[in-house]
What we know:
Layout: H1 14-25, E1 30-33, H2 35-42, E2 49-53, H3 57-63, E3 67-68, E4 76-82, E5 87-95, E6 97-99, E7 111-113, H4 117-122, E8 132-133, E9 139-140, H5 145-151, E10 153-154, H6 160-166, H7 170-181, E11 184-185, H8 187-196, H9 205-216, H10 221-230, H11 257-270, H12 275-283, H13 288-291, E12 293-297, E13 308-310, E14 316-318, H14 320-329, E15 334-337, H15 341-355, H16 360-371, H17 384-394, H18 399-411, H19 420-433, H20 446-453, H21 459-474, H22 481-492, H23 496-524
Amino acid sequence: MTNEYKNLIDKIPKEVLKTINQLENAGFEAFLVGGCVRDLILGNKPKDWDITTNAKPEEIIKLFEKTIYENDFGTVLVITEDVSDETLRQIEITPYRVEAKYSDLRHPDQIKFSDKLEEDLKRRDFTINAMAVDSKGHLTDIFEGLKDIYKRTLRTVGKPDDRFKEDALRMLRVVRFSVELSFTVSHETTESIVKNADLIKKISVERIRDEFIKIIMSPSPAVGITILQKFGLLRYIIPELEEGIGCEQLGEHIYDVWNHLLHAVQYTADKGMALEVRLAALFHDIGKPRSRRVVGERLTRDLAWSGRARLSTGEENRGPDKSLVTFLRHPSAKKYTFYGHEVVGARMTKKIMERLKFPRKDAELVEKLVRNHMFFSDPEKITLSAVRRTITKVGKENIWTLMSVREADRVGMRKKETPYRLRRYFAMIEEALRDPISFSQLKIDGNFMMQELGIKPGPRMGWILHALLEEVLDDPSKNNVEHLSALVKSLDMLPDDALRTLGERGKEKKEGLEEKEIGLLHKKHGVD
């Protein structure tokens, strides 16, 4: 290893180095291997720590106090405690091994333990994951993974066809590593994936789903989806998305459905949004290709069956048939509608989420977001009641998630992120969600006043309630049954004129405070 990478040892947690040293002190070889070595070289923080050794599982178990060994691959999970923050860390220790034929393209038919590190590295997927580091900082790199890291290139260990026929999921891992690390894919690896894409059908949907989630949660999900499509993998995972390729929308949309969805999901990643928002953004218009209808054709005054057609471009064509065909092919000749696409899309989303075996709770939420993303949001024309109905449809806990999807939808049309109209709608949502200043805040109500205090229903009761509310707004500590009951009795002794004056003053106080609160909401969203 060059001096440039000697400092990798300083980046390895002490308990991980201690684990390697325990194996070495017992006479065994031990190396950090795989993704953690790659991440250390890239300057990233490893998520997992994997050690490979020539020790066998039973020999590993004897060396450590806390271990778990419940698999067929020889991997022993060692539980250590991080002395710096007293948290537990899990370290996987696996013997060198050689894997035989993969009949099901998923699991090796047979696993044999080996005494050579080189044999273990040969079985790994990509060169950047086939490097090993010992406790002294020596790097073993027989497949030039370091060179590929410099080049930021993904290349398989050995022949790509062999690696993908061993485990077809590796084709998805290529895409995932590409978008997570911003690496390109080597030409031979790309050709092999395109040729072997159909092998992905042999992989369990759960494993496919997990890799797909990692692609969606990467910094570049739009690139990931595009690569999946170019490699021929998307047709075996979510073929419904490909229906949007070339499906033009016209009107306010400058992209076809496919590119619109890619822009939308990329926006959610750029903003660091949650998985359900990213999925809803990716699927929100997935129903458009199946619901698209041509509703009209703008024929010019010059178009005549026996004459000539003059298009908006100024082009002139002779002959009736040729003129009509040329005109109808012109983008301005057609207008599309997508009525009900959110309903169609929600059904499609449900099937996709079920097919990929997402948890029911996640599937139901994404379906709900797709179904309701078309809410009418013009604050100049809608009422708070309409806003409350939207909130009811998705639930208070999901309303802001829906707003994130709507914002992604707008950006997918190359529009401003949060224009005035949308910010105004956000303020209306907060207004609808806030607890209004009302009589319900009082510890006593009209029924209590009638049954316990003998107050008759009518205008006087209303004036008294407004007066009580003013009292409580000025001093919340007075909002108790005993104090309010005594105040009711005193107020009921006043003549109508005096009581009305107090009641109207309380009403004005309530309305003034409500107006102030709403004003603060408007200022918060920049719509004051």
